[in-house]
Amino acid sequence: MNKFRLSVFAVIASLALFSCGGSGERKTENTATTPVETKPTEPPVTSSSAPLSQDIMLEGNDQMRFNATEFRVKAGEPVHLTLKHVGTMKKDVMGHNVVVLKMGSDLHAFDTEAIKAKSTDYIPKSLNNEIIAHTKLLSGGESDSITFTLDKPGTYEFLCSFPGHATFMKGKIIAE
Ligand SMILES: [Cu+2]
């Protein structure tokens, strides 16, 4: 009897939750302790605020910016990253790529070397061993996807290696 009552309660409670949730998406992380506030989460970079996901969708634009600079993934599991150049400019003037560097790699040093590597779309052969994965260099309207695995927990940096872009176009992938 008690069991039956409890399950009825559970059903009612979950129905109530869903009906006031707005979108049909199931939010498993929200608990009743947090007040219901539908504010978009776009705070400045604070660690571990990014949702945990093995799918990374990244956009680069004609203003030389990525649309996000921090991601959280599970270590040891494949990550699928897609870069989309949402601008219209060609890759010889506003090309974008994503280069994921090994943990502890010096992003600034990498970028300095990348500037000299025009013939290989700014992927410096001499620093190949610093690279976990990278996309193609894209013009506006193009996109490219890569799959890679971050074996160890920690912070991995990424950048766009087109000359001058990494000042703004860089970020972190936190594997945990
Ligand atoms: Cu770029």
Automatic annotation (TrEMBL):
Gene3D superfamilies: Cupredoxins - blue copper proteins (2.60.40.420)
GO molecular function per UniProt: copper ion binding; electron transfer activity
InterPro entries xrefs: Azurin, BlueCu_1, BlueCu_1_BS, Cu-binding_ET, Cupredoxin
Signal peptide: 1-21
Residue ranges of every copy of the Blue (type 1) copper domain listed in the record: 59-174
Keywords per UniProt: Copper, Electron transport, Metal-binding, Signal, Transport
Region Disordered: start-end pairs: 23-51
Protein name: Blue (Type 1) copper domain protein
Annotated organism of origin: Pseudopedobacter saltans (strain ATCC 51119 / DSM 12145 / JCM 21818 / CCUG 39354 / LMG 10337 / NBRC 100064 / NCIMB 13643) (Pedobacter saltans)
Phylogenetic classification of the source organism: Bacteria, Pseudomonadati, Bacteroidota, Sphingobacteriia, Sphingobacteriales
